[in-house]
Write a structure and sequence with these properties.
The chain has 248 residues and is α+β, with helices and mostly antiparallel strands. The chain folds into two domains: 146 residues, Chemotaxis protein chec (3-Layer(aba) Sandwich), CATH 3.40.1550; 46 residues, no CATH class. The protein is 28% helix and 26% strand. The two termini are 51 Å apart.
Length: 248
């Protein structure tokens, strides 16, 4: 079954920057929870308004001001409950259980440890503060998640207020194009025909050319002159000899 081609927005956040954050999340959780913690990184996306609402509107969110953009560290309610349970040695804590004041303070400490990881995303950081999830949902331009692999699965979301501009790659060099084949043509005669004569052209017609016999020929690629020289034959094949100056 063939599907029609579609175009969609893709985040320009480098995967390397998100990977730095993912490694930092793993090391931070290992240090804070005192247990092994392997994580996986979900590729950065540009969420639409409905996705932003689901990702952030009801969650616990910390905002950190950065030189390039603002960063958001997000825990959805179910992930906040699971992380609080692990912090207090309750891996089987019900996801719907409300957070106590002590658990909220504990999560604030976790957020405070995770917020500096936004440096690779946002540049030099300012202070981090709690913010409303609805505000984050309205401002997030780029988003990715870091998820733990062992049960209970916990997802820590990272958002940016600005999707970084796409960086231009290095330019091509002649060495990069060494194996590329191009079609060329040699132009060595030219003339002009009035439109009535052109309309009467047929097999056997003689077209007058105004080019002198000693006039140079031109090597063209894609309709662009790249060299001048002489058209002729070599070894029984038609050939073109580039003139010493070479310039077209």
């Amino acid at each position: 079954m063939l599907r029609p081609a579609v175009f969609g927005l893709r985040s320009t956040l480098p995967l390397s920057a998100a990977s730095v954050v993912a490694n930092g999340v793993r090391e931070t959780l290992v240090r804070l929870l005192g247990r092994d913690c392997e994580v996986e990184l979900l590729e950065p996306i540009v969420p639409d308004p409905e996705e932003r609402r689901v990702l952030a509107a009801e969650g616990l969110v910390w905002r950190v001001r950065g030189r390039r953009s603002d960063g958001f560290v997000i825990l959805r309610p179910v992930d906040a409950a699971r992380l609080a349970g692990l912090a207090f040695g309750e891996p089987e804590r019900p996801a719907a259980a409300p957070l106590s004041e002590l658990e909220r303070e504990t999560l604030d400490r976790v957020f405070a440890a995770l917020a500096p990881l936004c440096t690779s995303l946002c540049g030099t950081l300012g202070p981090a503060v709690r913010t409303d999830g609805a505000v984050a949902a309205a401002e997030i331009a780029s988003y990715f998640e870091v998820r733990t692999l062992a049960a209970p699965r916990i997802a820590v979301g990272f958002g940016m207020s600005v999707d970084p501009p796409e960086e231009a790659g290095s330019t091509l060099t002649l060495d990069d194009l060494g194996d590329v084949e191009v079609a060329g043509s040699v132009r060595f005669a030219s003339g002009a025909l009035a439109l009535p004569h052109f309309a009467r052209l047929g097999r056997g017609a003689v077209v007058p050319l105004e080019t002198h016999l000693n006039a140079p020929a031109f090597l063209c690629v894609g309709g662009v002159r790249i060299a001048r020289g002489d058209a002729g034959a070599s070894g029984g094949s038609r050939a073109f000899a580039v003139a010493p100056s070479g310039a077209a």
